[in-house]
Amino acid sequence: MIRLFKKILDGLLGYIAEKKLSVKGLKYPIIGRTSSPHQIHVCLLHFDARIFESSKDLLNFIYRNTRDSLYRIDLLILPPSFGTSLLGVVPFLGKHFYFESGAKYVERFQELLSERFINLMKWFSKELGITIISGGVDTKEKTIVQVYDRGDLLYNRDVSREKPAVIELNDYKLAVLNEKDAKDFRTIRGFMDEGVYVYVVYSKRSYENLWEDKLDIWARSQSLGVYGIKSSLSGRIFGKVYRGRSTITAPIPLTPNLDGYLARSDVVGTAKLTAILDISKLVSYLKNYENGYERYWKLLKQRK
Amino acid sequence: MVILLGPQMILEEFEEVDISISWLETPFSGARLTIMGTENFFVVMRNGEVTLKSQEYEIVDFEGGKILITCGNEAMYPEVFYFGKSQGAQMGIAFSKARNPGELALYKAKFWVYSQDFHFPVLSLIKFLDKVQYNVYIPMEETQKGNGILSESTAPSIVKFEEGMKIPTIKR
Prior knowledge:
The complex is a heterodimer of chains A (304) and B (172).
Chain A: H1 2-20, E1 39-46, H2 55-66, E2 75-77, H3 101-108, H4 110-128, E3 131-135, E4 144-149, E5 152-158, E6 166-168, E7 173-177, H5 179-182, H6 185-192, E8 198-203, H7 210-213, H8 217-223, E9 227-232, E10 234-237, E11 240-243, E12 247-249, E13 261-264, E14 271-278, H9 279-286, H10 290-303
Parallel strand pairs in A: 1-2, 2-3, 7-8, 8-9
Antiparallel strand pairs in A: 1-14, 3-4, 4-5, 6-7, 9-12, 10-11, 12-13
Chain B: E1 2-5, E2 19-22, E3 33-37, E4 42-46, E5 49-54, E6 57-62, E7 65-71, H1 78-86, E8 91-97, H2 101-117, E9 122-128, E10 131-137, E11 149-153, E12 157-160, E13 169-171
Parallel strand pairs in B: 1-2, 2-3, 7-8, 8-9
Antiparallel strand pairs in B: 1-12, 3-4, 4-5, 6-7, 9-10, 10-11, 12-13
């Protein structure tokens, strides 16, 4: 009897949630593409976790926050677990997002939220004409990352468990990594063989110490010479407080402050990080180190 | 183990130095192992005699431990330090020359990264604007501030490693 009642209740709540996730009537102007295929204009949104009560609420939030940069964006990066913030569309459950009980409700409505979130982001990336990388609907144990390219879902994986893969976009390639993969230079060197120069790291770890924060993608930008984008979780989700730092990194000689960061957020608060990743500049920088690459990396691969 | 990093100084510790590392200075007679180099080559001397010359990277035995030495462009590749570590090196020494502030910062970052990635001390000598910068990086959990930087200076330093090259202490 209780089970039946629960099923009916879930169906009712799901129906209301579905209504709130419609994109009917929403309109966003298309964003102008960059003229050079070698320059990737990146915009990363870093903000404390929050809940959204409708698709309009969520999309308006992103649009409002990126509006100033909208005249030129190729790649928009949204935080880990971003899809989970849609829990607010299910009546009465919004507040649970901040408490441990939220994880239980996300699992209960996983299918509905996940499917609707994917459709929403597909539509949005098509509407704006850009590539979006976003955290999906997940709980503490998983880190779902999705890549949308002008209406298509190109990648949808749990990066904390599955092996990283190369994602081919129109003008360039990128790879999405977890923190552990980003700490191993061999993973990235292997991808560089395939012509991948942009790496996106999704992290749910909190580092107060900036030096510890440098150990993943910042370190790889320096030791190997690649562009790195790190999106970290910040704020309170499911009763746990996260204080992550988001960054866009590059080899030190290619950064204006000579610190290896093109942009960096603080551990709390909201930040919009924008940067231009110039692939041709990076390739000419890497030419200085071609000899050793041939000699040592190939030797290391032979030894395996 | 006591390491003198840089040219000879007038200090009492001289008599206790085990390894002297410098940028092509007059060899320091008090050390049992002398390593001198530039961005193009390095030499290793034992008891006043040159025992090794190289332009790439080498692993040298000293007191039962192993030390990786590399110079110039070779020091730029993580693979070199990876090989060194996989062959049992407990410490890395690198000689490089920076042509501009960007390169200087990059080389310092690279050596810091290698010390964290491969979990051993990296002692680097970087020549920039006619001065040599002596940097000592160690795994960050062993430094008080948690930043992995034991010393960065243009003045000679003496680094003292306890057995197994684990917890170094520094005197200037």
